[in-house]
Design brief:
With about 150 residues, the protein is mainly α. The protein is built from four helices and no strands.
């Protein structure tokens, strides 16, 4: 008996999309923790705290994604997304890499939304919520990268 809310090839495509997202979210945990260790200077405490909060959020998202994968009969990936070490650790370099990572996540959540739109309300709402979250992160990162007084 197949009780999956998404059938056949559609299920395989959705599970593949969710696994790509899971791998990105897991990479986010590692990436943001690493960044938090590499912040030095006067702003270390608030910036490290923000980065660690991002790691926690990535972990929470990974848990949600894994639960969605198993709810539709899939097997969560044990892989972790790309973790390129640039050895650039200025705040702007860290924020630039974080922006790229968040943008990649946004694109994957948009792909998921396209797969489930009007077919699975639970996953559609999840994708929309995550898209809003990623867009918010991108806006915050851009604000952090601005020079004070630039407006």
């Amino acid at each position: 008996m197949n009780d999956s809310p998404i059938a056949g090839q559609d299920s395989e495509a959705v599970i593949a999309s969710l696994n790509r997202i899971l791998e990105l979210e897991l990479a986010g945990v590692v990436r943001y923790l690493h960044y938090s260790f590499m912040v030095f200077g006067h702003s270390r405490i608030p910036i490290s705290a923000w980065l660690r909060a991002q790691a926690d959020e990535s972990r929470d998202h990974a848990v949600q994604v894994g639960e969605h994968i198993t709810s539709i009969g899939g097997h969560p990936s044990l892989k972790i997304g790309s973790l390129l070490e640039t050895h650039k650790h200025s705040i702007n370099d860290i924020l630039s890499e974080a922006y790229s990572h968040e943008h990649q996540g946004l694109e994957e959540y948009r792909k998921l939304l396209a797969l489930v739109r009007d077919r699975n309300i639970m996953l559609e709402e999840f994708a929309r919520t995550q898209i809003a979250s990623e867009e918010s992160h991108l806006a915050e990162i851009l604000k952090m990268m601005r020079t004070p007084g630039s407006i």
